[in-house]
Amino acid sequence: MAKYVYSFNEGSKDMRELLGGKGANLAEMTKIGLPVPFGFTITTEACNKYYEEGQKIDEALVDEIYEKLAELEEVMGKKFGDTEDPLLVSVRSGAPISMPGMMDTILNLGLNDEAVLGLAKLTNNPRFAYDSYRRFIQMYGDVVLEIPKTKFDEIFDTQKKKANVRFDFLLSPEDLQIIIAGYKELIKNELGFEFPQDPKEQMMGAVMAVFRSWNNERAILYRKLNDIPGELGTAVNIQAMVFGNMGETSGTGVAFSRNPSNGKNRLFGEFLVNAQGEDVVAGIRTPVEIAEMANVFPEQYAQFEKIAKVLEEHYRDMQDMEFTVERGKLFMLQTRNAKRTALAAVKTAVDMVEEGLITKEEAVMRLEPAQVENLLHPMFDEDKLKEATLLAKGLAASPGAACGQIYFNASDAEKAAAEGQKVILVRLETSPEDLAGMVAAEGILTARGGMTSHAAVVARGMGKPCVSGCSELTVREEGRELIIKNRIYREGDFLSIDGTEGTVYEGKIATVQAGMSGNFGTLMTWADEIRKLGVRANADNPRDAKQAFEFGAQGIGLCRTEHMFFDEERIPHFRKMILADTEEERREALKEILPYQKEDFVGIYQVMKELPVTIRLLDPPLHEFIPNTDEELMALSREINIPFEKLKKKALSLHEFNPMLGHRGCRLAITYPEIAEMQAEAIITAAIEVSKSEGIEIVPEIMIPLVGNVKELQYVKDVVDGKAKELIKAAGVNMKYLLGTMIEIPRAALTADEIAEVAEFFSFGTNDLTQMGLGFSRDDTGKIINEYLAKGIFEEDPFQSLDQTGIGKLVEIAVKLGKEKRPGIKLGICGEHGGDPKTIDFCHRTGLTYVSCSPFRVPIARLAAAQAAIKEGK
Amino acid sequence: MAKYVYSFNEGSKDMRELLGGKGANLAEMTKIGLPVPFGFTITTEACNKYYEEGQKIDEALVDEIYEKLAELEEVMGKKFGDTEDPLLVSVRSGAPISMPGMMDTILNLGLNDEAVLGLAKLTNNPRFAYDSYRRFIQMYGDVVLEIPKTKFDEIFDTQKKKANVRFDFLLSPEDLQIIIAGYKELIKNELGFEFPQDPKEQMMGAVMAVFRSWNNERAILYRKLNDIPGELGTAVNIQAMVFGNMGETSGTGVAFSRNPSNGKNRLFGEFLVNAQGEDVVAGIRTPVEIAEMANVFPEQYAQFEKIAKVLEEHYRDMQDMEFTVERGKLFMLQTRNAKRTALAAVKTAVDMVEEGLITKEEAVMRLEPAQVENLLHPMFDEDKLKEATLLAKGLAASPGAACGQIYFNASDAEKAAAEGQKVILVRLETSPEDLAGMVAAEGILTARGGMTSHAAVVARGMGKPCVSGCSELTVREEGRELIIKNRIYREGDFLSIDGTEGTVYEGKIATVQAGMSGNFGTLMTWADEIRKLGVRANADNPRDAKQAFEFGAQGIGLCRTEHMFFDEERIPHFRKMILADTEEERREALKEILPYQKEDFVGIYQVMKELPVTIRLLDPPLHEFIPNTDEELMALSREINIPFEKLKKKALSLHEFNPMLGHRGCRLAITYPEIAEMQAEAIITAAIEVSKSEGIEIVPEIMIPLVGNVKELQYVKDVVDGKAKELIKAAGVNMKYLLGTMIEIPRAALTADEIAEVAEFFSFGTNDLTQMGLGFSRDDTGKIINEYLAKGIFEEDPFQSLDQTGIGKLVEIAVKLGKEKRPGIKLGICGEHGGDPKTIDFCHRTGLTYVSCSPFRVPIARLAAAQAAIKEGK
């Protein structure tokens, strides 16, 4: 026969699925001999059975519960409903996965009109006894009998007024008895039956209420948000009550075994004499720091300190504990692994390795990759933040906190920064003309634009804090002022923004930063020892490359050559190239661009030294470089001295209905091989130059984008090889380079065997692969994706985390075919997924060589890659 | 040791790869005892060897050739270079696949200064002998020695002028001797050596020239255009010369065993007394019909007639033959399967089955699917066409010939047609407003717009002839006139257009049409017996459905519901639906659309009876229904009484960067389930109504477009099922329907197992699958695709014929996964590829249930499906 109820001494921490987290931990504590009030757990299977049987508890289960109850009575030496020394219990839910505050709890169960007398006599504290009874009826009425809480509150408040007392605890036993009578009357009026006096009946009602609470709205919503399956069910814990409010020798507390905020290795928490947990939460009395417990209850404090150590060693992790002292005796009510900040997670993990408590692998598993970002960007000092005034919320467009004086255009911002001011650039929205101002600023704040607006994308690229789309702002760029909540802020005023949260604060708030050194550096070193996947960065210029290098990137996985062309000095030449009518004219314009392009590569090689740098040839459709409004075209016409009509005609001819699927990528190189030639020249001559000047061996990796057919690749390879070989020969050096391709078109993945005959490496461009494989234009379908997430059609945004079922299959096919044809082929990923931990786990399992992500995600990727290796090893 | 040379009596017709087409056929004719001048064939392997060895013929091969030459001399009883009766030979190329006129031929080889005397004596015709010698030197000088032909012509013309004769054949033997001397001098001056007198040297030179000709520019281009591999190589045929120009008992002719134009079973060809083939080609003398040979050479004619029958029976196909009568003796010089018109192909195939010559399977293989279209559309009467004046060439936008009076706008065209005129609608370009005019017209002619312009797409859909993008036309719509080549044509003037050729003719040209009856009907019946693949049609309205039904479609594979909304009466309601701010407003507008939608389905069901009809729910992005210029919006604003600003705002909000990958397909149904509900209602109520009225059982197939994730399908299925079940229940009937999906997003193909859990059928939307799988927007990349075709990156336009390597792989994956999950799943294809024979062959091999194509392609598909089954059986 199945067993549905376990006494605390029958379970263990490994039975979480069956007993729930709380029940398993109570059993575990009991097992290792800690002072836990005895009790038993009704399993999650019983909960599922309850639902299967149409929300009923069958006879067999009732019998089993009563059996365990009898055992509890025996262990405690008390009887349910006893008029001398009644057994009181708490009834608490406990799911396998923690759902804090999501379900209901009932305390003091077992009290009735008789037992309350016994309790009063026993404790010699009638006020305590009646207050407990009154609380029990109220909780039971609300949770089990489902009578609105406000109706109880009314009765309570009426009596409080009558008694003319300010605080609840000033009510006399008589007042409480009146309230109890009122409560019972209320219940009878509402339901037509009396408040149950039989403790067993009370208990069964409470058990069913806990089962029911598994499917209340709050719980369902929480599970949906946290991806917890509904089939798990909840367990019910029935435990003998202990009281922290039995006078000055009693008390209650919650404590962490270390500081969950910064990880310091000493108890952290709060304690309150003569109180129950409820009182702490209700905020009626202010608890004191746990350390002060040593003064009041030195013996119990010492005992608790020892228990905390025992639990830490037992669970091998920081613990979050609840305890009660009842008339001088310490009882442990709960323990669980503690939630903690990134800072604390890092310090604790490293400390515990040094203490010999956990292995490096375990330490590496202790930090959530998502938390890493917090460590890299400046954060507001928590203490200072408490006093700050929140002005508005926008989109968390680029993480990190910044504070500075506000300026409303790029040149003002630049000037102020040059004078040594810290600047926040405020714009309606930014455009490429604002670039210099963005570089000069500490952070960017815009009133319009989404997560993929210019401000957001550029700021993320720069690693600068940005809050975008902050629609509560009225920005008057001309008037150099902004209005939030009817307050005007003018040029030079201080604001603080937090791009991790999307918040805007008034005035200055101090910031702090963890950086790559210290404990975090140590943890990263361990991660590097463990991981098998390489980690590179996407960087388009020496500045980003340097940032990536400092964050531990082992190379550049994607250097986009086109971003370089948007620079003010360069774009006129690039536009001339686009507007050329003949190959000769195009070659003329390209000649002007060549030195710039080479200069960038020189800078990147100098930073990366012998680490690999993958440079992608020109990718975007040419229309992106030509303005699209008549006004802008008119201005451009004057600037570069080409008739407006010609410009307009060219702009129209470049227009495409679906530019995503249009004339871009290698298709440009096939139509205009001279562009690829120029780029090859810049890549190769820069490499020759830096190899010589630094005395190192650089092996550039040239990447051809948007290949769908091996013949496209072959065509461009011939162009690149022709130029490269000529230059290498002319320089009289012996330089190697690799030529590979993006796998970003579904057909490329499907024919990767053919492509691997020509390509020496693949880099999965999962952005485009997702767009084409799913038929979702990233620029257009943000709204649809949100709708899909809301309707449960998508579990995750496929542009954030790789769709492993669909797009992942394409990657797997390509990896398999590519390796078959060219066993040593280098395989990378350079879409934005490259920095997503789940995707990194997938890349590890699929056998990729490296992931490449934005510089600020490099440490995340290093950690996630190590965790993937550890998980696989298990 | 490998054998590189075969005498004609050593080979057979099955040795085409080795001996080339001509050589194999000469051997075959020799084998079956026909009078063929003896000779031998140097194999294609020898040609490849020649190239492998750096364009050299090795000793062993020379010896082998000389051995066969000795045999030839013996058989003919003549010696090479003999001064009495010299052996003369022709040297002809002959590749495994016919490349007409692509390579060079040399006649009269073996003549030299001595042999010419023998020939003169023997034939008693010095003019003939010297003329033969002069022709030989000229041909040899041109082909083998590579001296420009014009230089020989100069010498010839100079002498002709000196002799003061009008025709070549009036030159005297002395004139010819002077020319010969001049030719020889030219050669010596050009090359520094004498024209070779040794016939063996002549022969080896000619053999190498033939080998070289395999790689001349013409040949390479032809192979490229016709997809013939360069590794095949060419054979060389060396054959004893016979002369049709040896006087009045000699002659030459070419003839087909049946009429290649209409297939009538009697000899068809031309004959010329005392002439060589060359003379016929040169047009110096006019040949007579082959039948007249019976009068001149009754005996030889009878013999040839018999031989023609023998050859037909032997080759089991219509033959195209060349022969010569030399002094009363008939020689066969060549035979090959005849090229023929579609009409002739059909009649011959059916006749031959009736004659017991070939099987039905063979008959079905005899018609090229590409030829079928010619049979379905009206064609100009060939005889009348000869006399017509070609005015201009545009794009062959929609096949078929038409003639009528020209009108310049839709309403004039409608009016004229209503009065019984045949009308050609002439427009700069057409727009949806011209629809009524297009319906009324026999054909459409536009000055602008490509193969996918409105005119082209709509005309193809209607099966009407259309010439689009005819840029030579100046169309003055207002002035009701058009100008071609400085001639003005006014309203009411007659023009004839051929949409198969893209040609425009002056005046009226009579048309003819084959239709589905007669021989073609018979052949189609046989095809239906053989094929395993079903054939359905894409049809959006009862008219197209009727056409499809008449062409033998076994159902509708794709009924696009959105085309119905463009109708003048309906589009205002549809626009109101789009512009609605609330679900209620949308439901209001949908209520107006419902009756129209239902009416269409009723019409289609009435045509198709119990044949399956697959109806696709709304697919295109909504912006397609809203005008995009401010002027049009302004007009719409007045028309539907909605403020311009609101319209403009909505139009902007509907704008997408990549609409192809945007808010369309099932995504619309997920955002606006009420649209899917309305469509489901129309589909189901129409089916219930027609089932009742016709007393038949209709099982509608409801198809959800653009599914990439099974959850999308499930979501829409729930909506459709909800409505459908409610309606079926309310009607009190027992109706079934199927619900399936398009597979047109790569992810759908990759996760077809998941999708097949919900979908009862798949229909491959290979247009979108190609766009997304290849990353090519069809609207944008026409130019790139042409460039790719020119550069050899694409072998075929992937939108015309399915890319079997890439997109085909997706189809295969989906078929495999779909069948695994749901073994009986119906699998169709409804992209435009559904009418392409190569794609149909692929669909057959991949195990699809049916293909669906435009009505006019249904017969092509029936034939292609049968051919696929036959090919597989082999």
Mind sketching the topology for me?
The structure is a homodimer of 874-residue chains.
Chain A: E1 5-7, H1 16-31, E2 39-42, H2 44-52, H3 59-76, E3 79-80, E4 86-87, E5 89-94, E6 105-109, H4 115-123, H5 126-143, H6 149-163, H7 173-191, H8 199-213, H9 217-226, E7 235-240, E8 251-256, E9 268-273, H10 277-282, E10 288-289, H11 293-296, H12 298-315, E11 319-326, E12 329-337, H13 342-354, H14 360-365, H15 369-376, E13 379-380, H16 382-386, E14 390-393, E15 395-398, E16 401-407, H17 410-418, E17 423-427, H18 435-440, E18 443-446, H19 454-462, E19 466-468, E20 474-476, E21 481-484, E22 487-490, E23 494-498, E24 503-506, E25 511-512, H20 518-530, E26 534-538, H21 542-550, E27 556-560, H22 571-579, H23 583-608, E28 613-616, H24 630-640, H25 644-654, H26 666-671, H27 673-694, E29 701-704, H28 710-731, E30 738-743, H29 746-750, H30 752-756, E31 761-764, H31 766-774, H32 782-790, H33 807-821, E32 826-829, H34 837-846, E33 850-853, H35 858-873
Parallel strand pairs in A: 3-4, 16-17, 17-18, 18-19, 26-27, 26-33, 27-28, 28-29, 29-30, 30-31, 31-32, 32-33
Antiparallel strand pairs in A: 1-2, 2-7, 5-6, 5-7, 8-9, 8-11, 9-10, 11-12, 13-25, 14-24, 15-19, 16-23, 20-21, 21-22, 23-24
Helix pairs in contact in A: 4-5, 5-7, 6-7, 13-20, 15-35, 20-35, 21-23, 22-23, 23-27, 27-28, 34-35
